[in-house]
Each structure stands twice: as structure tokens, then as C-alpha cells.
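Posting this for the archive.
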Amino acid sequence: RYSRGKMLYHTGDLPFPIQHTPDTFSQFKKEVERYVQIRKPLPAPERTFNIITTEIDPGIMPGLKDLGHESLQLDRRSSNYFKGGEKEGLKRLEDYFSDVDAVRSYTDTKDEIGGSNFSTSLSPYLAQGCISPKQVFAAIQTFKERYENHKSLEDLFHQLMYRDFLRFMVKKYGALVFDKGG
């Protein structure tokens, strides 16, 4: 079953057509917070899918050198190595929200790059569709219920909203966003 999940807000739930999306984030925020309720994430499928019974020879997976690139050398100083996939995205989401101090300090540390919990490190998983913004919003709500409503949670929520706002700007203006002056 197909479902849209890359955004926090469904376009059909907005109080305006996309072509009339406010051009400033503050006005966008004001209107959507007043009129739009965020939908819950869809639950995981209840049944498993049929196993593919056809034998397929996967062949040899080419490496970076085979594709004309140098081998990737991971920098030992980095604290964030991203593994792809939904399982890793969900694990990162759970790990981040289980560290109460990291969540509470998000506002102060979100722009830092020196530690694994200085930011949520959820962006690659959101960008690739491994997790949805609705799942992050649900984690924010769960944290609020379990601990408290903290300024950092509001800031994180506003980042999710801003992410949607920018996507709506691209939908509204298309290629014009790449013109000089944007």
C-alpha cells in the first residue's frame, strides 16, 4: 500500500493550496499550528510478505575502485558513521530519545559536530526515507509524556516544520528557487 511519508504535514491537510503557501516560515508556522493536526505514523505491516522463491544469482557487487573511485577511508576522529536502512534509522531514533540529557541539550548543541549526540543525527535517515518525520514527532510526544515538555523539544519540532516549509517552497516555486536571489 502506497503512503506518503516524507513530510510531517500532508498537503491535503494544509489550510491553503501549495501555491498560496506563505513565503515566510513564521507565517507558515502560525497557520499550520493553528489549523493542522499531525497524523500518526502508519503502523508496521501486520503480516510478512511472501518470500521470493526464484533463485537469483546476485553476481559480484562492484566496489568503489571498480567504479573509478578511491576506497573510502573512515576518519577515526569522526563520531558519526551512518549505516543505511530503516533498522538503523529506527535504532538511531530510539538511541537519541533514550538519552535524556542529549534531548534536553538539543537547543544548545544542535550545530555542534564533535559528538554522536550533539545533534539528532537523524537527517540522513529522514532524507532517504528510512524513517519519517511523523515518527520523529511521535518520539517527541512520547518524550514529553514520559519526562516533560522542554524548549529543546519545541526547537526540534520547529526544525521538522522548517523542513516541510522548505519542501513546500520548492513545490510552490519549482526551479525558481535555484535562480540568483532564490
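The chain has a mean pLDDT of 88. DSSP finds seven helices and no strands in the chain.
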